[in-house]
Amino acid sequence: MAASIVQNTFKKELEMLKTGRESRHDFTWVLYFSTLLLMTLLLTSSNSYAANVPVCSADYDQYYPKAASDGAGGAIIVWGDRRTDDNYDVYVQRMNAQGTVLWQSNGIFISYNSQGDGTDQSDPQIIPDGAGGAFIAWIDNRDSGYGDIYCQHINSSGASQWTANGVMVCDASSYQRDVRLVSDGSGGIILCWSDMRGSNQDIYTRRVNSSGTPQWTDDGVLICNAASSQQDPAIVSDGSGGAIMAWTDSRTGARGVYAQRINSSGAVQWTANGVALSSVGRTGQYPQICSDGAGGAVVTWYDDRTYGQVPFTSYDIFAQRINTSGVIQWTANGVAVCNYDAQQEHPRIIGDGSG
Question: What is the CATH topology of the domain spanning 172-355?
Answer without folding.
Answer: Neuraminidase (2.120.10)
